[in-house]
Amino acid sequence: MLYEEMMMDSSTLLKFKLFKKIMFLGSQSYPIAVIASDMNLNYQQTVIDLTDIDKELAAMNPDHQSILLGGGKINCQNLSCTMDEYRYQLLKSSVPFQFILYFLNEEAPTIDDFCVKFYASRSTVSRKIAKLKRYLKDRHLRFTYTEAGMSGDERVIRLALFDLLWLGVRSIEWPFTVSEETADRLVEGYAKYFPLARTYVGRHELKFFAAIFYQRIQKNKFVRYDQAYNFLMEDNSYYDFTSLKDMIDLEMTDEQLKAESSFIFFLAHLSPFYTLEDDATLKQTIKDFAHQPNPVIRLVRDYLDFAKQEFFADDPKLLDYPIIMGNLINISFGYYIIKRPFPTIQQLVEGNTENLRSLKKIENTTQEWFYNLSQESDYTSFITEENYPLIAKSFTEVLLPFVDLNKESEKVIVGIALEHNYLLVKKIYSYLSDLRFVEAEPFDSTKINHYDLAISSSLLLKKRYPNKRSSYGTMPVMKTN
Q1: What phi and psi values does residue 73 have, to the nearest 5 degrees?
Q2: CA-to-CA distance for 152 and 481, rounded, in angstroms?
């Protein structure tokens, strides 16, 4: 289920889809009847919804010029806000979104207080958060109401909070009670562990996570140290368990400090963050996971051996790139620790999109391989019936850019400023690699004049560099059929 489908009611979702439609049309005079037909909508209802959108845009921006032209046409170029801004405006009246923000920010949240503040009955709240409840239930989380909040594995709760808030706000404003300065201090203190910290959008993502981290601890919602971390973090000087107490002004025991520090290091290995071969964190990850025998590195090596024989027999060295091993390690580590499905951004922005036809066989064969693996005692704790289809899909998608590697050619330099997750950016990278004249890399704001074009899922880039050539799109940035 896509993010907006889960967080918006049907009428709000329709307005968002209309906004998205006319934004990408870009015409100065476009027939409403064609929009209604394309979207299988009633013409009169489409006019009503477009009128509502126009009023909302006028309320957001006093300089807004109406999109309505008369004669049954609209000016698509008169949209006076970005898609991120309009989404966030709609979410301000979304019960699921506001409930998440409420129990995160409020000192003593209760369902009754929420109902009073947002003029909603308990039955209305229950009905409007039903889709979000189902999504959370699939990840073994649930809402609580006596004390409004969420229950389950605290690590997974924080992952869910980040996904749900980041995708709604995208740094348009600061929605937290903790100061940005406090979040910045935490990000700076642990930047060396996260490749995200060296990219434009990634830095904003880390600030959101730091805020959630701080506010959950502030409410005495702590994680526990997991013994499964030991092979990676125990007796490893790279992971500094002593610095958190100097970066955070909250009272914690030594045990809590250790557990919360371990959570930060767990986050640094949770997602397939690596997009550059010369990334120091990538080299460190491979070194640390290869240091002693463990199920994660064994799984990755076994799979790469299998994939070389099964899919890359003509050129097995293609799978020797460190970026492949590093991203497969991070995918595996998340499931090894959590041992069940957990929230990821790509689940909410890609939905149930199909892979390339050329990859379908790889995914099916990989699923078979993982199914057989799930029967082996070494892997039964985390390669489960619930997990292995998800791991197989992620593993397959890491291979995507290497299925048909093109020769080097003259390049147009493109900076990619998307959420820092390999599974999200892989398709755009793969698409651009098919264009022999393109060289794509993660956007670096210090190299702004280096790029011929920047591609982003957020208008943050356009606002900061209004004179640079850039392209904006919602995620998935592209779909490949």
Answers
A1: -130, 160
A2: 37
